[in-house]
Amino acid sequence: MSLRNHHKDHNHHHRRPMFQANQSSCALFVGTWVRDDTYPLYDSSNCNSIDPEFNCQMYGRPDSDYLKYRWRPLNCELPRFDGVEFLLNMRGKTVMFVGDSLGRNQWESLICMISSMAPQTRTEMIRGDPLSTFKFVDYGLTVSFYKAPYLVDIDVAEGRRILRLEDISGNSKAWRDADVLSFNTGHWWSHQGSLQGWDYMESGGSYYQDMDRLVALEEGLRTWANWVDTNIDRTRTRVFFQSISPTHYNPSEWSTGGGTTTTKNCYGETAPVIGTTYPGAFPNQMRVVDVVIRDMHNPPFLLDITMLSELRKDGHPSIYSGDLSPEQRANPGRSADCSHWCLPGLPDTWNQLFYTALFY
């Protein structure tokens, strides 16, 4: 497959999407986290659409400084999120997040951000699987999440789950008519054992019990990319791809400089990494995403949140991820969630960048 020869370099900052801010181009995704006491943008107790596993304050997280950081790009200030402007600009439209639970994390964040600024607006929530929908009734705006952790289809045949690396026809029916689409994938491709979401992969009419996971990701992403290039009318639909959301399970990645680490993961982390770069490894999956998107005829806007999220080792639910048992809480080395993100928290910044790309 084509993956092997691409991206030997570790610096992918040379192709950043730019936007005009004060007449100068702004590299949205390179910058630093600065403390801002006007944050967070909403209170979790006022937003009932947050799932328990993201609702860290409700489930006992004792610190709150992680809520007080704002992303500052190196050469501009981001416009502040305005939920009423979002409603007015998107009146009568459909926004859909498609992907895994990181997409759900962002979907719930956006609902809370808009709702907190328009508290009188009538709303409706319909939770389902794979599609969940939140409606801002007075504006005719629908903000949906469609669960498709691999983007491509997964079918059950004779009791076996078949991951169809070359077929996206089933899932794509759900998102074909959206006005704004934001896709993400990544985490489920590396799962093994009981967490693995498939029994066989199917490619070119052959079935595989396993293959190089990055090769599989690339094949699935190329199927998605071809569908987007062929089926999306860009005069009508805005398309985003959210880059790989990093995890923080290995403290040696951020504890460079000889400091001793007291934890096995993100548990107990209360502040971001200082500076503009992350000392740990860059996700290999992101190189696959870069390669596939670069080859598209009509590429989506890459919401490149990987590096800025890597700096936020403090933003995960850890052991404050829903109703864990006392035994689970006492063993953060085994039970801490260092993949998802607290709400309010980091996904609010993803949505601020999403908002900036949509409207500025």
TrEMBL record:
InterPro entries xref list: TBL, TBL_C, TBL_N
Molecular function in Gene Ontology: O-acetyltransferase activity
Signal peptide as annotated in the record: none
Domain of life per record: Eukaryota
Domain Trichome birefringence-like C-terminal: 78-356
Location relative to the cell: Membrane
This protein's record includes keyword Transferase: no
Occurrences of domain Trichome birefringence-like N-terminal (ranges): 25-77
One Gene Ontology cellular component: membrane
Chief place where the protein resides: membrane
Topology relative to the membrane: Single-pass membrane protein
Record keywords, A-Z: Membrane, Signal-anchor, Transmembrane, Transmembrane helix
Pfam families: PC-Esterase (PF13839), PMR5N (PF14416)
PANTHER family in the record: PROTEIN PMR5, PROTEIN TRICHOME BIREFRINGENCE-LIKE 9-RELATED
UniProt record similarity statement: Belongs to the PC-esterase family. TBL subfamily.
Protein name (database record): PC-Esterase domain-containing protein/PMR5N domain-containing protein
